[in-house]
Specification:
about 50% strand, mainly beta, rod-shaped, 15 strands, about 170 residues, three-stranded antiparallel sheet
Length: about 170
């Protein structure tokens, strides 16, 4: 799943700076997938995204949307900075760091196995999953959730012919 980051570069005046450049040396745990900008153009070289936004008139903005694919789970930080050819009387608002958490999605590692059980017997099914917690389970019979069947193991006691069609799980 891609992550899209939207950046707004604003000029609060009074002058209109020229040569506005947005720079993003992105985290090595991110794979660059694409960029769209409301003005100017962007390049991606050696893990650094540079967007030449040109001139931004007073009380105007330029918009940049960047898409990344996370390569690993965990907290990832991304730093953006803006510079221009003009003197900036408020340089403290020219950089921003954002952080976000990438989680491992649930994935079924081992499916429950069918079993032959005599009528009136007991059948036990289990599913093995991976992913970042919390993980939630729900077992179904056809499309109906089985009450209380919310963990990785399902026990059916006194099975009937109808139980032979029990659909499995949702994680």
């Amino acid at each position: 799943t891609n992550i899209t980051i939207s950046v707004t570069v604003s000029n609060h005046g009074p002058a209109g700076p020229s040569g506005v450049m947005l720079t993003n040396p992105y985290d090595t745990n991110l794979l660059f997938r694409g960029v769209a900008t409301s003005q100017g153009s962007c390049t991606n070289e050696g893990g650094v995204l540079r967007c030449d936004l040109g001139d931004i008139a007073p009380d105007s903005s330029a918009f940049v949307q960047i898409s990344f694919e996370p390569l690993t789970a965990g907290v990832i930080s991304n730093v953006f900075s803006v510079a221009s050819l003009a003197v900036d009387f408020n340089p403290l608002n020219n950089a921003q760091t954002i952080s976000f958490t990438v989680e491992n999605p649930p994935q079924i590692m081992e499916q429950p196995r069918g079993q032959g059980v005599p009528i009136g017997g007991t059948a036990t099914f289990s599913v093995t999953v991976a992913g970042d917690p919390p993980l939630a389970y729900q077992w179904f019979h056809d499309t109906n959730a089985l009450a209380g069947a919310t963990n990785g193991t399902l026990g059916l006691i006194n099975v009937t012919l109808q139980d032979a069609e029990t659909d499995l799980k949702r994680v």
